[in-house]
Amino acid sequence: MAIECLVLGAGQEVGKSCVVVTINGKRIMFDCGMHMGYDDHRRYPDFSLISKSRDFDHSLDCVIITHFHLDHVGALPYFTEVCGYNGPIYMTYPTKALAPLMLEDFRKVLVDRRGEEEQFTSLHISQCMQKVIAIDLKQTLQVDDDLQIRAYYAGHVLGAAMFYAKVGESAMVYTGDYNMTPDRHLGAAQIDRLELDLLITESTYATTIRDSKYAREREFLKAVHECVAGGGKVLIPTFALGRAQELCILLDDYWERMNLKVPIYFSAGMIQLLFLPFMYLNMLPGEILYS
To answer: Could you tell me which residue ranges the Metallo-beta-lactamase domain spans (predicted)?
Structure first.
């Protein structure tokens, strides 16, 4: 058994997740993200480390994307349409639906608002997503005669998955971002008991000790209530996908319990995204779906 890891991003840093693993001769790229803090060559992974000749189709057996956040998928259109990778790309159905929305929004902000040089176009995004093969959770997919992959529920955002890969008798798991604390619209990560030779896990908050989720929500709701009770207005900037849905459910429940009449408004750009989870009810755990 021979396993090699080439870390192109998210090693000793947060952002630009991209890890290339060679396992028994098969080479898999896990995630293809960008670093939002840079506007130079450091924004994208250095793909030349995969192949000096840039023959990526023969240097990789597949690309796997764990979820739609830009630090995990942001460099994908650049890698496929500019660098020329045309091999298989795998992600879950919700990720395939949501990734192009995130990518296009980023492109608009970058080019139309900031006036930066365009790294990839809207057409690049569309052409890139046409190459994606969507898979279901716990679906075992045979990439070729030797390599098989399987997605597991990660609980991070809608469609987020941890991926199991097996080549011959060797097996590994790459988690991407995952969450073990269920909330109002997502459950905790779930995975089978597996015999592995390698585990690559997200660890951004591994050493961080925080107050309980209940305590954080209580403090948040207390601050909001005090503000509106005093005639004030509360502005909550938040991610349109994931966090926004959670806050909407939290506030709606609190408003009902406290019989508050103050209206809650959502920005127009968020409205269409708020209902996307209901298109993928099969991706929600039972305790969330039927609660």
So the answer is: 15-232
